[in-house]
Amino acid sequence: MSEPFRATTVLVARLAGAALALAVAGIHIADQGGFPGSKTPDYVGVGYYLLEGVSVLTAAALLLPPASRLRAAAWTIAATFVSAGPLLGYGLSRGPGLPDYDDDLGNWTEPLGVLSLLVESALLALSVTVLIAARRAQPRSTAQLQRPTLDSPDPHRARLGQTATISSGAEQ
Question: Which parts of 25-141 are beta strand (E)?
Answer without folding.
Answer: none
